[in-house]
Design a protein that fits this description.
It contains four helices and four strands, in the order H-E-H-H-E-E-E-H. The chain is an alpha+beta fold and 94 residues long. It has one domain: Glutaredoxin (3-Layer(aba) Sandwich), CATH 3.40.30. The chain has a four-stranded mixed beta sheet, covered by helices on one side. The N terminus is likely disordered. The protein binds FE2/S2 (inorganic) cluster. FE2/S2 (inorganic) cluster binds next to helix 2. FE2/S2 (inorganic) cluster (FES) binds next to helix 2.
Length: 94
């Protein structure tokens, strides 16, 4: 109950754009990578266009409203560990 890391991770929601522009840039693989490595409690959902086409694949983390652009599948574990678990934004791909 007083485990802060767990409670903050469990309230996160990761949205991965699966609309055309992002899909062309590999969003399906990014979504799959998130689904494969996401932490218990955090949710991962596919979403429609996030209005940032061309910078994709776009990922939005709620409720922090943190955006990641041009996310590559190999960067997903880093986002999961640093952001979802440690609560630190991954500046490189913000
Ligand atoms: S298609 Fe992904 S942000 Fe528009």
């Amino acid at each position: 109950m007083s485990n802060k890391t767990q409670s903050s991770a469990s309230s996160k929601c990761v949205r991965v754009c699966q609309n055309r522009a992002c899909k062309k840039q590999g969003a399906a693989k990014v979504l799959a990578a998130f689904k494969a490595s996401v932490v218990p409690g955090a949710t991962v959902t596919a979403t429609g266009c996030l209005g940032q086409c061309g910078n994709g694949p776009m990922v939005l983390v709620l409720p922090d409203r943190v955006w990641y652009s041009g996310v590559r599948p190999h960067e997903v574990p880093m986002v999961v560990e640093q952001h979802l678990l440690d609560g630190q934004e991954v500046k490189k791909i913000l």
